[in-house]
Amino acid sequence: MCMSNLIVVGSIALDTTHFPNRESIRDVMGGTASYFTLASSFFEKTGVISIIGTDFPENYKETLEKSGANIDGIEIKDGKSFRFESKFMDNMDEREDLATEINVLGEFNPKLPEAYKDAEFIFLGNTDPEQHLSVLDQVKNPKLTAFDTIKLWIDTKLDTVMEVIKRVDIVFLNEFEVRDIFKEQNLKKAAMKCLDLGPSYIVIKKGEHGALLYGKDLHFSIPGYPLDEVVDPTGAGDSFAGGFMGWIAKTRDISEANLRKAMVYGSILASFNTQNIGPDAFKNINMLDIQNRYNDFRRIVEFE
Ligand code: AMP
């Protein structure tokens, strides 16, 4: 198995999504690990650790492989793939989770291939936090570990979510999840409560309003990229994390100056993701498109 210095652990899903102004889509490839990988692969070969059922369409697997990712760590199990159904509100930002079918993801016991144990950059994407703890026990000496979660795990396994937070370097959450976990409406205070538990940084995603990066002495803010139309924001958070971690893994630089740049790359990949159904947007972009948007961001935030 070939070595990957960036590893993602998370779900690979079949998503059904309902929108206020267009037809619903059914069983489209989704999941944390998928969106993360399609974004991070622009920067760094990504090793994917996940599980799918025997019903998972071959062409979706090919999409992941074509991104350049290493998919040897995807287990195929007899049974149905993880499924997630959700509905976007009129503002296309807030989402109601309608149904989660855990299926084979419930039997997932991630076993890192030997070649992955030395990886320096680890992203624990949204999946059962028990699985995150198991991965943290297996990696040898990571340079940067990051974590994301979702309402289901906050509601059902908060203690385990807290245990993971205590052991990682960066926490990625959206503004609703942060308020929910730390029982604090003020985002700055909620961020500080998170950092008090151990992580060096927290990234708070605010949908179309951008994202915040907090460290003990750091407050960085990036706006959302101005888009004429948002088609499907599913996976925007994971694409953000993919752009962020992909850039960090490529540059192997975890200085604060570089974390700021990573915030920009995260926002760029998230913005491309929302412009198409499912992960389709990633098929049509290249590094030049990413760099152009980077320059746009520079102009947007520039002032004397
Ligand atoms: P995001 O829009 O970035 O929050 O990510 C949404 C993706 O997370 C969807 O593609 C879902 O398939 C996946 N997802 C939703 N709920 C869960 C869950 N409980 N565990 C793992 N993955 C999930």
Keyphrases for this structure?
304 residues; alpha/beta; UDP-N-acetylmuramoyl-L-alanine:D-glutamate ligase; 9-stranded mixed beta sheet; 4-stranded mixed beta sheet; 37% helix; globular; binds adenosine monophosphate
Describe the structure.
- The protein has a nine-stranded mixed β-sheet with strand order 5-4-1-8-9-10-11-12-13, with helices on both faces. It has a four-stranded mixed β-sheet with strand order 3-2-6-7.
- The chain starts with 5 loop residues before the first strand and ends with a helix.
- The chain is an alpha/beta fold and 304 residues long.
- It has helices spanning 32-40, 58-66, 129-138, 151-156, 158-167, 175-182, 187-196, 236-251, 256-274, 287-301; strands at 6-9, 13-18, 25-30, 46-53, 74-77, 82-88, 95-101, 121-124, 144-148, 170-174, 201-205, 211-215, 218-222.
- The mean pLDDT is 96.
- Strand 6 and strand 7 (95-101) form a beta hairpin.
- The protein has ten helices and 13 strands.
- The chain binds adenosine monophosphate.
- Adenosine monophosphate (AMP) binds at residues 11, 13, 15, 30-32, 84, 100, 126-127, 150, 152, 234-238.
